[in-house]
Design goal:
Length: about 290
């Protein structure tokens, strides 16, 4: 049954489910003790909120639009996950300034995040679209449990029995940090709506000082269409026994609002009431109505 599948595929770590395929206790411990440097940048996401998009964007912003990393290094080594096995292997090869991504909640971030001047970008996406994206991701990724029907998966998602736990816990953990002006919040929807404007905001936050021409070039190369064609970003290097693009591509639709094609009105009521209740006071400051 589904519970067995969960035990088979995930490790339990500080109450969170973490895929065994890409993580082990060693990599997780490595992350808990990671030494952030002052000029590091880390993009934080709940899974399916725009992680690989940031893996495309950050190197381009930080190296003024040089396309080499995008064309030569797979996304997981270009901007590695803090908590995955790969980081320890390639840490020494990362260019300065280093860019990373993480799905960790705030309280699991290493002490060095607080003592360094590293910058944090929190990317948030409408949870209804996160659920839909995750539903398809579970169908294509062999290292995740079979999602069952959309209705079943909606319950699984709301119960937090998915990688990195409940969406509401993740979002809440990052909304009140002591990082001050070292953290910037951005939404997936904002990036979909006007990528150049989002890139200018990111560039300013990171102090990149880029011309409009470079911003335009970066926007072009980070479009959904271009990323889908980039073998270093579209996961075509991963054998289909692990990720089966014929079931659903990783770069699937890349739009805001696909939830409208999936939710019934009953599911919408159930989803919204749980999210609303769990977010409490935070609910009113969300950029979308749920
Ligand atoms: P969909 O499944 O809705 O298409 P993550 O990288 O956190 O796993 O998130 C994956 C989601 O981000 C997928 O959403 C994927 O298509 C979307 N995405 C990745 N790059 C994108 C881009 N350049 N433009 C729009 N969406 C993008």
């Amino acid at each position: 049954g589904p519970i067995m599948a969960v035990e088979e595929k995930f490790l339990r770590f500080h109450g969170l489910l973490v895929p065994k395929e890409t993580h082990d206790l060693e990599s997780l411990k490595f992350a808990l003790n990671f030494a952030f440097k002052d000029n590091d940048v880390v993009a934080v996401t709940y899974p399916k909120s725009g992680t690989i998009w940031m893996q495309e964007i950050l190197p381009l912003l930080l190296n003024k639009g040089d396309l080499t990393p995008l064309q030569t290094i797979p996304n997981w080594d270009r901007v590695p996950w803090l908590e995955e096995k790969r980081l320890a292997l390639i840490e020494d090869q990362l260019p300065t300034p280093r860019a990373m991504v993480t799905h960790f909640p705030y309280h699991l971030m290493p002490p060095s995040l607080h003592t360094s001047k590293a910058k944090v970008i929190y990317v948030m996406r409408n949870p209804k679209d996160v659920l839909v994206s995750s539903y398809y991701f579970h169908q294509m990724a062999a290292f995740l449990q079979d999602p069952g029907t959309f209705d079943e998966f909606l319950t699984t998602f709301l119960e937090g029995k998915v990688l990195f736990g409940k969406w509401t816990d993740h979002v809440k953990s990052w909304r009140h940090t002591d990082l001050g002006d070292r953290i910037m919040f951005i939404t997936y929807e904002e990036m979909v709506q006007d990528l150049p404007a989002a890139l200018r905001r990111l560039s300013e936050f990171l102090g990149c000082n880029l011309s409009d021409q470079v911003i335009q070039k970066i926007a072009e190369h980070c479009s959904f269409k271009m990323m889908k064609k980039n073998p270093m970003s579209n996961f075509s290097l991963v054998p289909s026994q692990y990720m089966d693009s014929s079931k659903s591509p990783f770069l699937r639709k890349g739009v805001a609002g696909d939830w409208k094609n999936h939710f019934s009105s009953e599911q919408l009521v159930k989803f919204s009431s749980v999210i609303k209740k769990e977010l409490e006071n935070e609910y009113s400051s969300l950029p979308w109505s749920l």
